[in-house]
Amino acid sequence: MIPVLDWQRYSGGQDTAGFVRDLGRACRETGFFLLSGHGVPEEQIAEVFSQADAFFALPEADKAPLDIRRSPHNRGWAAQGSEALDEKSGQMDRKEAFNIGFDMPPDDPRVLAGEPFRGVNVWPSGLPGFRGAMLAYYRAALDLGVALHGAFEAELGLPPGFFAPHFTEPMATLRVLSYPAATEGIGAGAHTDYGSITLLMTDGVAGLQVRPRGGNWTDVPHVPGAYVVNIGDCLMRWSNDTYVSTPHRVLPPPRARRSIAFFLDPNPDSVIAALPGTGAAKYPAVTGADYLRMRLDATYAPRPLPI
To answer: What count of Cα atoms within 13 Å lies in the side-chain half-sphere of residue 276?
Structure first.
C-alpha cells in the first residue's frame, strides 16, 4: 500500500509529528509515497507538459544536435533506444526524454574547469517558452525537495538543517519523458533511482509499477495533482539502509504517456557516508559526483551518435 501524505500537515504546522511519523513509515517500508498539498501550481505543471509536448513533436533532425551523449554533464535529449534502465535484461526502453540540470553560465569557473556535472544546459531552438518554463519548474521542485529533507531530518533524529549544505547547488536533474503507446516491450525497465529522492508528476496514464521487498509488482495509484515521491539509492546509502530504494518500472502504456521527473541528487562534492545514529557503516564513503557517474555509465547503451 502506497500512502498519500498531505504536505500541508507538515508545512502548515497542522500535524507535524503525525506527518513525520507517517513519512518515516513510508520511507522505511516501501520507499514510495504520494504527496498532495505540495503547493506547486497546477498551471505551472501544465505549462511544463505543454512545452515538453512541443519539444518531442519536433523532427528528429532538430533534436539530434542536443543528444545527451554529446554532454559529459547528463543534459539534453535521450532518443528512444538509447537507454536500458534494466541493466541485466538488455531490453531497451521505449521512451524519449530531455534533461535539464542545475543552470550555470558558460563562464562559471567550474564550467570552464570541466568539473563533473558542472556544465551548461542545452536548449532547443524555435521554442521560445521552453527554457523559462523548465527553469521555473526546476526551482519550484528543488525548493520542495529540499524542504522534504527537513522532514527527513526530523524523522531520522538529525539536527535541523543537516541536509541543507548538501543541496545548495545540487546535481538535480529535471527530466521530461514521453512514452509512445505500445503493446509489447517495456516503457522503462525495472530499476531503482540513483539520487536522494525523485518527485514524479504523471499525466494519469497507467503504467508505473513498484515492487516492494518481498512483494509482487503493484500499480502505483494516480491521485490528480499529487507527486509520486520515492527514495533513491543515494539516500538509502546515506541512511545506511534505514530508508529503502524500491524497484519500479513503466509498462508499455495503452496510450501515449507523459511524465515529469525531478531527480534530486546532492552537490557533487558532498560526501555520502552513513548518517549519525544509523550504526556501523555498510558502505564506504563516496562523493555525490562519483556515485552518480558510476550509475549513469551503466545506463546508456553504446548506440552510435548521429553524424
So the answer is: 7
